[in-house]
Write a structure and sequence with these properties.
CATH architecture of the largest domain: 2-Layer Sandwich
CATH topology of the largest domain: Beta-Lactamase
Largest sheet: 6 strands, antiparallel
Shape: globular
Strand order of the largest sheet: 5-4-3-8-7-6
Strand content: 15-25%
CATH superfamily of the largest domain: GAF domain
Number of domains: 2
Number of strands: 8
Oligomer: single chain
C-alpha cells in the first residue's frame, strides 16, 4: 500500500514543495473562479436597456471596482466578445455563442420550436416559451410573426416576473414560501399606470393565474401591449415553462385573447407536455 504523505515543513517552517504547489494551485483556482464570476457579471449587465457601457458603467452594474471592471472588459475585447471605441464597450456577435450553448442542447427548446411555429401560424401573432431565472422570465424559444413592428421581447430577453403574464404563470409554480420570499425581495416598479406593483396585488394575480390556468398582462409592461401565458408542465405535474402570445392592444383585445387565443395556447402547451 502506498503510504499517505503528511505535510512536511522545512527548517524555516515553510511548507514542503508538494504542499507549496498544492497551495499555489488552490490559490489560482480561487482567483480564476473569481475572475470568471466578474466577467460573467459584466456580460449579464448587457441588455436591451444597456447596449453599451463605459468602465464606470460596468463597475456600477456588476458591483466591481473600476480596475477589476476594466480588466474584465479588456479581456472580453481580446477574446472577441466586445468591441471598444476608446470609451464605450459594445457586444459583438461572438456573444451569441454563450446563449446558443444552452439553446442548442436543450431538448425543451428543440421540441418546442415547431410547435411554436404552428401556433404562430394559426394565431398570426408571435408565440414564445420562457423559463424562470432569478425572478425574471427568460425567453428560450420564439416564433416571430412577420410584421413591420415586432411585438414582445426577443430570444434570450428577460421580463420582470411580477408584472408579466409569463412571469406570473412561472411564479405560480413555486412553493408559497419561496414565491413570497422572491416578491418581498424584488423592487416593484410601476412601468405604466396599469402595472400592479404591490405585494398583495401581485400575489392575487399569481393565485388567480394558477386557478384559471392562464395569466394576462394588460398594458402593464408597456402601453399598447398585452400578453397571455399558460403553463407547460413536466411529467411530474410541475410547471417547467410558460407559453405566451404578445399582441398590440389596439388590434387584439382581452376578450379576443380569452376566446380565440387561449384554446390554441392550451392545445400547444398540452402537445409540448406530452413530448417532455
Amino acid at each position: 500500500m502506498t503510504p499517505i504523505k503528511s505535510p512536511v515543513k522545512t527548517e524555516a517552517g515553510a511548507l514542503s514543495p508538494d504542499k507549496e504547489e498544492a497551495g499555489t494551485i488552490q490559490a489560482r483556482a480561487k482567483e480564476g473562479m473569481a475572475g470568471l464570476a466578474k466577467g460573467l457579471a459584466i456580460i449579464e449587465a448587457f441588455g436591451a436597456n444597456t447596449t453599451r457601457m463605459t468602465v464606470s458603467d460596468a463597475a456600477h452594474l456588476a458591483d466591481l471596482s473600476r480596475p477589476a471592471a476594466r480588466r474584465c472588459l479588456l479581456t472580453l475585447v481580446d477574446l472577441g466578445y466586445l468591441a471598444h471605441d476608446g470609451k464605450f464597450f459594445t457586444p459583438l456577435p461572438r456573444m451569441l455563442r454563450l446563449g446558443s450553448a444552452y439553446l442548442s442542447t436543450s431538448s425543451l427548446t428543440q421540441i418546442a420550436q415547431p410547435l411554436l411555429a404552428s401556433a404562430r401560424d394559426r394565431l398570426q401573432e408571435s408565440v414564445s416559451l420562457a423559463v424562470l431565472d432569478e425572478g425574471f422570465a427568460v425567453f428560450i424559444a420564439r416564433a416571430e410573426a412577420v410584421r413591420i413592428v415586432s411585438t414582445g421581447v426577443k430570444l434570450g430577453g428577460r421580463l420582470p416576473a411580477y408584472c408579466s403574464a409569463t412571469g406570473r404563470v412561472l411564479l405560480g409554480g413555486l412553493p408559497e414560501q419561496q414565491m413570497r420570499a422572491h416578491l418581498e425581495s424584488v423592487l416593484m416598479k410601476r412601468l405604466t399606470h396599469r402595472t400592479v406593483a404591490n405585494l398583495d396585488g401581485v400575489l392575487k394575480a399569481i393565485r388567480r393565474a394558477a386557478e384559471d390556468g392562464y395569466a394576462i398582462s394588460d398594458e402593464e409592461l408597456e402601453i399598447g401591449m398585452s400578453a397571455m401565458a399558460v403553463p407547460v408542465k413536466n411529467s411530474a405535474g410541475q410547471i417547467e415553462a410558460a407559453l405566451s402570445v404578445s399582441v398590440f392592444s389596439g388590434r387584439v383585445n382581452i376578450e379576443t385573447l380569452r376566446e380565440n387565443f387561449l384554446p390554441t395556447l392550451r392545445e400547444t402547451a398540452e402537445r409540448l407536455q406530452r413530448s417532455l
